[in-house]
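User: My collaborator sent over this chain with a note saying "see what the structure looks like." That's all I know about it. Can you take a look?
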Amino acid sequence: MKRVAVIVFVLALIVSAIFIFFPKTKEIIGLDTGPPLIGIQPYGNIADREVDSVKNSIEKMYGFEVVVLNKVDLPEMAYTEIRYPRYRADSLLHWLTYHHPDSIDIAVGLTNQDISITKYKEGTREVKDPEWMYKDFGIFGLGSVGGNACVVSSNRLHKNVSSKTFYKRLMRITCHEVGHVLGLRHCPEPNCLMNDANESIKTIDNSTGDLCQDCWADI
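Assistant: Without extra context I'll predict from the sequence alone. Here is the result:
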C-alpha cells in the first residue's frame, strides 16, 4: 500500500513539473481552454448602439472575444405583473443558461425592459421589509457568481441624464455582472467596479469603472 502511495506521489510531481516547464501541455491535451468566449444575447428591440457599447466595453476591460447573437424575444416564462409589467432576472438567467450556443462560454443577456428579483433578509428566505417593495424589486442587472450567464437592463439608466452618462452606466453595469460570472463577489472597496450598488445608481456613477487590485488578482 505504501509503495502505491509513493508511486502516485511521484507521478503527481512529474505531471506538475510538466505543466510548469511546458505550459502549452494543458492546451494540447484540452485542460486549458483559454479565455472564455462571450456571447451577447440581445432581447427584443434593444438598440444596436447599446449592444455595440456593451460588446466594446467587455472587450476593452477583460480582453475577451465577444460575439453578438441574433436578437430574440424575451421569454414569456420570465414575465411578471407582481408589481409592474416586467421580467424576472433570475428566470432570464435560467433561460440563458440553457438557450445559448455550445460554443459560448458566458452569455450576457441585454434588454431595455425592466427586470426584477425578490430580495430577502440576509441569511434567510424571508422577504425584506417592506415586503410590497422587495417582493418584486427592480434592478440594473444580475450575474450568477461562477456561473455562465448574466443579464443587464438599460431601462433604469437613462432618466434625467446625458447620453454619455447613460452609456457609461450601461458599460459599467455590464462589466460588473460579467465580473460576477468570472467568480467575483461584491467588493468592500468603495471605488471598485465590484462594489455593491446598494440599490443606488450613484454607486455606479462614483466608481472608477475599473476593478481594484484584489479583484483583478482573483480573476
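A starting point for your reply to your collaborator: The radius of gyration is 20 Å.
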